Amino acid sequence: MNVDVDLPVSLNLRIMRKYDDLTSAEKKVADVVLNLGDSIIEHNIKSLAEESKVSEPTVVRFCRSIGLSGIKELKKAAMQSTVAETPAPPSSHISTLESKDQLVAFVLDNMAYILGETKKIVNEESLFKAIDLINKASFIKILGYGGSSIVARHIHHYLRMAGKHVELLRSQEDYYPSLREQYDKSDVVLAISYSGNTEVILDLVRDAKAKGARIISITSWGECKLNSLADVSLQSYFYGDGIIPGVHAFERISQLAIANMLITGLYKLNQPT
């Protein structure tokens, strides 16, 4: 899936989403761009290369690595971020938490920021399409593994309350029974994965898609295998290794927000008039 430069996503988030996959030279460009902020629009490819201490072709490769064609689209993305008036992120790494007096503000400020970024990322057309698919589905299978299983259970609970025929992948023990599941074109598989590259989820999605089911994915913003398989992709907030490294407790609230959008949309469609 190619990321569209016109998506209302901050340039910083675009870079963060791909940062770990950049080469060491491309990371030098990324660091300079992140430090420059909207003043990047005053630079040309030569000056950006000089400030980053890399070659001009490296600047072009960096742009392409984050889904942009070159320096012109990089500036365009920076200008769009400025127009959107993206607020500065709070201190977003646990290492910046210096005392217990900062704990409440640290947690709530980061949660508020993540939800604000989620609002910018969500594509409403895709969201409404996903709600419509769920509403019309004869059967819904919800897939979530590891931390994403929390979100899967949340959606499962409220879809059952709404009277939908829905099943949940509860553990790895459900893997082989799930492969024996029969689907048709009126069935939906809702797959949730932060990375979008969890093999257990990908195997089940490929199987369901081959049998005719429609696929909805909830995964972190950017390119991943799960999004390439999905009929409808819903993007959640991404923050590298996590505000708490290796633990995506904060980032999970973005997935839960999208889950609540689906739930609320479904209930609204079926609200008695």
Describe this protein's structure.
By secondary structure, the protein is an alpha/beta fold. It has 2 domains: 11-83, Winged helix-like DNA-binding domain superfamily/Winged helix DNA-binding domain (Arc Repressor Mutant, subunit A, Orthogonal Bundle), CATH 1.10.10.10; 121-269, Rossmann fold. 51% of the residues lie in helices and 10% in strands. The chain is built from 12 helices and 5 strands. The protein has a 5-stranded parallel sheet with strand order 2-1-3-4-5, with helices on both faces.
Query: What is the CATH superfamily classification of the largest domain?
Result: Glucose-6-phosphate isomerase like protein, domain 1
Query: Given this structure, which CATH class of the largest domain is correct?
Result: Alpha Beta
Q: Give the count of helical stretches.
A: 12
Shape: globular
Low-confidence stretches: 1-8
How many structural units, i.e. domains? Answer: 2
Q: What structural class do the secondary elements suggest?
A: alpha/beta
CATH fold-level name of the largest domain: Rossmann fold
Give the fraction of residues assigned to helices. 40-55%
Query: Any idea what the CATH architecture of the largest domain is?
Result: 3-Layer(aba) Sandwich
**N-to-C terminal Cα separation, in Å?**
40 Å
Radius of gyration: 20 Å
Mean pLDDT: 85
Query: Helix-strand pattern, N to C?
Result: HHHHHHHEHEHEHEHEH
Strand content: 5-15%
Largest sheet: 5 strands, parallel
The tally of strands reads: 5
Major sheet: order of its strands?
Answer: 2-1-3-4-5
